[in-house]
Write a structure and sequence with these properties.
The structure holds 2 protein chains of 2 kinds.
Chain A (H helix, E strand, L loop, with lengths): L2 H35 L4 H31 L1
Helix pairs in contact in A: 1-2
Chain B lengths: L10 E3 L2 E2 L2 E2 L2 E2 H22 L7 H21 L3 H22 L11 H23 L1 H6 L11 H44 L6 H38 L2
Helix pairs in contact in B: 1-2, 1-3, 2-3, 2-7, 3-7, 4-6, 4-7, 6-7
Classes of the chains: A mainly alpha, B mainly alpha.
Chain lengths: 73, 242
């Protein structure tokens, strides 16, 4: 296993991780903003926020799987 | 990948039918225990149903009513028909995830075979539901939106078809990767004890493991809910398409 494999495994996770972190920050910021604007619908917004975060997180985990597959070669 | 959990798969009883390997492994036993657990729980909860529910009946009814409301949002008039299927998927994934949190028990949902079978099952079921509802030709015609120019329609059909094929993949890999990653993180944090090599620092990785476990239980609920929700969404899209 060459150095490039390690590098690519790290790069996959690093790039996707930063993208996912940005998306989660957007989701969190927007939902807190909407909760502050409409406190009566805070419960609904919280549920959809958690679902959206789970979607983003699963994309980050695809990258984790790919990097593990690269390392397990 | 197989060693990522606390317990690895052990071969208990080799078995093969027509060249297909269906050996009984410890993972299969865990799946059976999961099914038995769900059966026992629902049997105990519904054996003596009372108008004023007891503790167990109350909990099960609460989860059931939550799903009843969710599916009626997604499926409309078809909710009554599909609710048992969706609720069973939710129960199976949830109990599998939670049983996987018990030390020494193989987490079945961290095995791609289990999640892929569930996802392919959901895929077949929702395609069949769509075909049964609208007929073969009309269902596949509904892949292409109405009023599309005739020369773009084949391209759109192929794109939509690939999108449909991607659904079971995303369902399977989402659940598999979430559970696997959770267990891997737990193992990594625990292995810090052996890296530190100091009894004074050992409690800190243990505290981290406790925190990760609490988060994992939360993830177990979220992923089970997501799997069931997405199944309901796919079935709803298939049967409600005009």
């Amino acid at each position: 296993m060459g150095a490039l494999t390690y590098l690519s495994a790290a790069l996959v996770l690093g790039l996707v991780g930063s993208a996912a972190a940005f998306s989660i920050s957007q989701i969190g910021a927007k939902s807190v903003e909407s909760m502050a604007r409409q406190p009566e619908s805070a419960a609904n917004i919280r549920v959809s926020m958690i679902i959206a975060i789970a979607f983003v997180e699963s994309i980050a985990l695809y990258a984790l799987v790919v990097s593990f597959m690269l390392l397990a070669k | 990948m197989e060693k990522s959990g606390e317990a690895a798969v052990k071969l208990l009883f080799p078995l093969s039918v027509f060249g297909v390997d269906i050996s009984i492994t410890s993972a299969v036993v865990v799946v059976w225990v999961t099914c038995f657990f769900i059966f026992a729980l629902s049997f105990l909860a519904s054996r003596k149903m009372t108008p004023v529910p007891g503790k167990l009946q109350n909990i099960i009814e609460m989860i059931y009513e939550f799903f009843e409301q969710q599916t009626s949002d997604l499926l409309g008039e078809y909710a009554v028909r599909w609710l048992p299927f969706i609720f069973s998927i939710f129960c199976f994934v949830l109990v599998s995830n939670l049983l996987g949190m018990v030390p020494g028990v193989y987490p079945t949902t961290s095995n791609i075979n289990v999640t892929a079978s569930l996802a392919v099952f959901v895929f077949v079921v929702y395609q069949m539901a769509g075909i049964a509802e609208h007929g073969f030709i009309a269902y596949f015609r509904s892949y292409v939106p109405k009023g599309v120019p005739i020369f773009i329609a084949p391209v759109l059909f192929v794109i939509e078809f690939v999108g449909h094929l991607a659904r079971p993949f995303s369902l399977a890999i989402r659940l598999f990767a979430n559970v696997t990653a959770g267990h891997l993180v737990a193992v990594t944090i625990l292995s810090l004890i052996f890296i530190f090599k100091s009894p004074w620092l050992a409690p800190f990785p243990l505290l981290g493991k406790v925190a990760i476990s609490i988060f994992e239980i939360f993830i177990a609920f979220i992923q089970a809910y997501l799997f069931a929700y997405l199944s309901a969404l796919y079935i709803g899209l298939a049967v409600n398409e005009e």
